[in-house]
Design a protein that fits this description.
It is built from two helices and no strands. It is 47% helix and 0% strand. The longest helix has 20 residues. The chain is flat. The chain has one domain. The chain is an all-alpha fold.
Length: 51
Amino acid sequence: LSQALGIPLCSGMGVDHARSRIHAPNENIFVDDYIQVIKCNGELIRRFAEI
């Protein structure tokens, strides 16, 4: 995406919890946490758009 747009990119935030088993076959997260991080990333994008 960075190459296609010709601009640097900023990584958004992710979500996990103490037993989420990041990158394991049984990785998991809570739905409520997922929704919150979507909203947070949306706000991050909105604020960058104002710059």
